[in-house]
Amino acid sequence: VQLVESGGGSVQPGGSLRLSCVASGFIFHEHYMSWYRQIPGEEREEERELVAGMNSDGINPYYDHSVKGRFTISRDNTKNTVYLQMSSLKPDDSSMYYCSVTIAERIHWGQGTQVTVSS
Predict the structure, then answer these.
(1) How far apart are CA 87 and CA 13, in angstroms?
(2) How would you class 60 by CB atoms within 10 Å of its CB: exposed for 0-12, middle for 13-18, buried for 19 or more?
(3) What share of the chain in percent tops pLDDT 70?
């Protein structure tokens, strides 16, 4: 399983970014895909918070209350890619963002992409 994130960067408050995660090594369209971000000050995998998630058919995506209305998760099963469109970014959104999939009860992570929101 390989997950490769991209699209992070530095933006001013109110700005937008679109993160991408290209997946390989598993049947993408059969799996729920998620975006997490690292809790500030924490380094362990267990200290990551779920930001958004989407099942294989794209219906009823999940959003954490802190990003609802500002972030949009989507996926393109033909490209084995999941996206996270982030708008109206706030300094509190600054973090390392990770793409994740759980297969046979094992969580797989990408390497992460850094998002920094600062004026």
Answers:
(1) 9
(2) exposed
(3) 100
Stretch 20-31: mean pLDDT: 97
Question: If DSSP codes are grouped into helix, strand and coil, which group holds residue 116?
Answer: strand
Exposure b/e, 63-101, CB count within 10 A at least 16 = b: beeebeeebbbebeeeebbbbbebeebeeebbbbbbbbb
pLDDT score of 40 = 83
DSSP 31: S
**Residue among 54, 63, 40, 41 nearest 101 (CA):** 54
**Predicted pLDDT at 114:** 97
